[in-house]
Each structure stands twice: as C-alpha cells, then as structure tokens.
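Schema walk-through. Below, the input block comes first and the output block second. Nothing else is stored per chain. Lengths vary across the set, and this one has 126 residues.
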Amino acid sequence: MRIIHFLVVCALVYAASYVYRIKMDSTTRTERVLRLQAQVREQREAIAALRSEWARLDAPRRLQILAERHLKLKPIEATQFDSLKNLPERPPSLVPPGTSDPIGAMIEIVDPDVITGSLPASEGPR
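--- output ---
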C-alpha cells in the first residue's frame, strides 16, 4: 500500500510540475505577444506620423510657394506659342518600310562602311 501512495504522490508532483511549466510557458508567450503588440502599435503610430509629414510636405500650396521662391519660372504667355503652319516639314524617313532592323538600316544609310552586325533578311536565327 505504501508503494501505491508513493507512486501517486510522485505522479501528483510530476503533474504539478508539468502544469507549472505549462503556466510559465503561457505566461512567457503572453508577455512576448504583448511586447509584439506594443511594437506593432509603435510602428503604426510612426507610419501615421510619417504619412502626415508626407501629406504636409506634399501639399500643393507649399510646393507652389517653394517653386516660386527657388525656381525662376514665369507663367506661359500666349505669344510663346506658334501656329501649326510655321512648323518645319517632317524630316525624311531614314528607314525603308518593311525593314526588320530599323536601327541597323538607319546606320547603314548614314555610314554604309559601318558593320552593324545585323543579319540580312534572308538569313534567320540558327
């Protein structure tokens, strides 16, 4: 009978220590969760502060004042525009229609002695 009492007492001590360990683990994890929640709250407050600072710095009126102060720009006047009839003629096209390599064709027209490395249209990739 004493052995059974001893085994029951040992089982109770083991169960109590196991429950205590679970309690300590849960307490530690709860503290960690609370610390993480506090950090998240701080980060959200920092983000909100930065967004409000961005909105203040990006305000159109503030930007207009800074542009007027630091840039020597003047408003556009109607006399600065010209009519379409005074535009120069469109330059001739240097690329023949249907060319597979337009840049190479322009270079060959400008300087025929330059080797561009482009393949003739009859040869394809190997």
